[in-house]
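Quick illustration, no need to memorize.
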Amino acid sequence: MTKTTFIRRILPVTLIAALALSAARAAEPVQLITREEAGLPATDAAGGAVRNLTRGPGIDTQGTLGSGVAGKPLRLAVKFLPSNGVPVDPNSVRVIYRRQPALDVTMRVKAFITAQGIEAPAVLVPPGKHVIEIEAVDKEGRVGRSQMTLTVAPAQ
């Protein structure tokens, strides 16, 4: 099979599979934090901005609407801002729920993490205030961190 024939046969199948996977991911909300996890003791952290001590990537959490109502999905939108053009390694990204003990919830949104950021269109979070820490490491090993607070009101 020639390279051109291979591309003509495989590319359409690959594109269709990618679109189907994308549609499936977008259709079903992801449980970012469970009620049991929300019941754990809060950390002593103030929940403010976390300062990067290195020239690692910036993390912009402004795309995430920080408040919502229980039972209705929130959009988790985080943008990575490369430092000196060095991209983030998507495999290095960690999403931590700041409780005692801290909980790594990265695997719940792993499918939505790219070198550009995190784009999870629908995540579910129980009522309360929830501090989420995002950590990303660029291809040169420099670390960037940021925190955001999600505030969810009880369903009415």
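The first helix runs from residue 3 to 27.
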